[in-house]
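Notebook entry, structure prediction.
Reason for the run: the old model in the group folder had no record of what sequence produced it. Starting over properly, with the input documented here first.
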Amino acid sequence: MGEFVGMTVLITGASSGIGLATARAFGREGARLILIARRESRLKQLQDVLASTHGTESRVLPLDLRDREAILAGLEGLSDDWRGVDVLVNNAGLALGVDPLHRGEPDEWDAVIDVNVKALLIVSRTVIPWMVARNRGHVVNLGSIAGRETYPGGAVYCATKHAVRSLTRGMKMDLQGTPIRVTSIDPGLVETEFSVVRFRGDHDRARAPYQGIQPLTGEDIAEAVIWAASRPPHVNIMDMTIFPTSQASSVHVHRD
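New structure, fully documented this time:
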């Protein structure tokens, strides 16, 4: 158990990948967890594992993060003792396809923008006032190297992650004068279910970006989230870029 004992941590996209690893990491550290994702069965399975392994107290909110009213109803339905969120991890995100912009699918653009940008805004707009009222808190936004660079076939996804980077800086400016901290963590190649979704269930294509390298894991990024959130109150880690050693940019990757 660590310094997060008794603290409340809210994680979006908690059912897989980086979100799942982050939930496990905070659970080990003694935090209470609010777990948000679309797949209720996975959330409940995680809830049971954390309770049996670490005695973690948690609440699950199975929400479609494209549905603003569902987000608001789920968060506003929390009892007062669960609104004292100490750390908000805006992790949920997705990419769909690698088509050139002029051959892209507008419905897929809507999904990517809704989850990567609008859901982050709505969750933050609801939770940050609770932090301001308590005069404490930390917002961690999961960005991407795609928020610092742009690559072919990724225009819309990259645009959403550039938005996350901008929103992170704007949050910090708007919260100036409060003790609330804001962090953006921007990973490179992390092997999770992310690529399976992006390639619409084609597992062979999803594995290709990670062949010939040792990619990052969800646990690597979770460790960075824990580290940033555990700094002394006067220290704000504003942003972090994390690559596997074999990666130098979004398009420069050495493969064996």
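Summary: The domain at 8-242 is CATH 3.40.50.720 (Rossmann fold).
The old model has been moved to the deprecated folder.
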